[in-house]
Specification:
The protein is mainly α and 122 residues long. The chain has one domain (21-116). The chain has 3 helices and no strands. Helix 1 (21-51) packs antiparallel against helix 2, helix 1 packs parallel to helix 3 (95-116) and helix 2 (53-87) runs antiparallel to helix 3 (95-116).
Length: 122
Amino acid sequence: MTTSGDAPGDAAGAVFDPGLQPERTLLAWRRTCLSFAVGSLVAMRFALDALGPLAVVGGVLGAALSVLAYLLAATGYRRAHRSLTAQGALTRSGLPMLLATLAVLAIGAMGAAFLVHGGLGG
């Protein structure tokens, strides 16, 4: 009896890794990107009075980068799944990590601008 992960070239829908590591990674990206998007929008809400339109730009930018990072991670998962089942080798891109980093920087920049413009002091 063979399992779906025994050899490259198994059926396209077969799971390559019996431990489901690629699936767990995609779920982790989903949670992370959702957190970044929500964090960006919450930060925008709290900074809106102090920063005005700059807060909206920062919040929407952070949320958009988070969504794009998730879409790229999901595409990367599908590409990795095809690569693993067809060739037994994995190729990856660092673009989702870059976009997630930019989303975090957008949240941080909005927080710094909020503090500089006196959002906490009154």
